[in-house]
Amino acid sequence: MSHSVLIIGSGFGGIGMAIRLKQAGLHDFVILEKADELGGTWRDNTYPGAACDVPSHLYSFSFERKTDWTRRFPPQGEILDYLRHCARKYGVLPHIRFGTEVTEARFDAGDGQSNAVWRVSTSEGDELTARVLISACGQLNRPALPAIEGRESFTGPSFHSARWDHGVDLQGRKVAVIGTGASAIQIVPEIAAEAGRLVVFQRSAPYVIQKPDRPYRRWERMLLAAVPGVYELSRAKIYALYESRAVGFVKYPRLMKIMEKAFRKGLEAQVPDPALRDSLVPDYPMGCKRILVSSDYYPALNRPNVHLVTDPIARITPTGVTTADGTDHEADVIVHATGFLSTDFLAPMKITGVGGRELNDVWRHGAAAHLGITVSGFPNLFLLYGPYTNLGHNSIIYMLESQYRYVMGCLGALRKADLDWIDVRPGVLDAFGREMQERLRSTVWETGCASWYMNAEGKVVNNWPGFTFAYRRATRRPDPRDFRARRAAPLATPGTRA
């Protein structure tokens, strides 16, 4: 089956891109989704306490406002419902093929008499073709399980936080949570009151700041819906506040010292035990790793049934976790809150471009894409939430909307200039990669810690080293000089051009 555009993934990236395609009058597209439901990370992460750490008014599409969020920071279920609503309202659902995982995509340059296409193979054994291939897989979609000796030997329930087993009853049981990242700090407070004994294994202490969350009052929701401009003002205010944080992240990392002092003061107020408090002080500059937000994580650690363990894990046994000091920590259930394979991007899919080059091989020393969107040697392939587009300070939805516009500009160029394909020039991609690495060196992410922003070689490949409005300006429209192109075959099949 042939399409003009094929999108991989139906999270925020895929749904938003599909809406923009339909608004532009392009209806010949398909979304391939490996799961049985849309939603991406907000479908997968159903663990207790799952919620966003960006305010709801900003963590939503600018073109589809929602004035009746129940809280300032939206919970997982509400975000998923919002995405379902968007897909229904804009007629995206009929374009989604659920339960269809992409295993391979190969660029076929054509023979001069026919146009180039991407040949996409699926887990069902089908092959689809599309002139344009858009990856909306995101960066946080493949759970990372730690290589701990004996992990498979544990006899009780054991699962990753993104694959939460809701059939497991934690009431009164001994629970081990491995990890203290963004998922763990939401999980621990929720299950602390339920578990008989909860042991939290911390490899590296995170910075956790207060989360100014609260329910929206009924009159506030009515005001947002009824008075023109109030919602937009709220969104703009939140954006400006969060954008200002980029000054410390990417311009003057020394400013993070001010936030560090506030963090320590808050920690002292929330954790009265000096020994426990000392264990919760990070040994790296604030912002080097992801800053977490929670108002109930530290209070949960004060509970008598909750125990923080900072000794390294030596192995997992059939009955629990053994640390390097020889202590056996019995457990009935193990939760791996150990993050994601964030720097692998399109893996494990096999993406083959011009001349048989495989994307994973091209990226063996670190993923790179011009503006996080295009890769030289892979014509008509566009990435959403690709390398160098993650943030430490603002909403990724803002970045995605910038990318939609850029991709639509590229599709418009294909159509208007009657082009078969466009491919970013190698020199343009290389220059962008050098610029990113040079700018990243002066950011807080390069101040001496290991984080999920880095690949195995210690190279930061995830984050945008600047303001989001600067990224929007850079992606305002594609520059024709950045691309090489080939004109469409004269006998192209009608109706197949993007």
UniProtKB/TrEMBL annotation:
What's the short name of a Pfam family annotated to this entry? Pyr_redox_3
User: Which branch of life, at top level?
Assistant: Bacteria
The family database entries (Gene3D superfamilies) matched by this protein are listed as: FAD/NAD(P)-binding domain
PANTHER family for the chain? FAD_NAD(P)-BINDING DOMAIN-CONTAINING PROTEIN-RELATED, L-ORNITHINE N(5)-MONOOXYGENASE-RELATED
The protein, known as: NAD(P)/FAD-dependent oxidoreductase
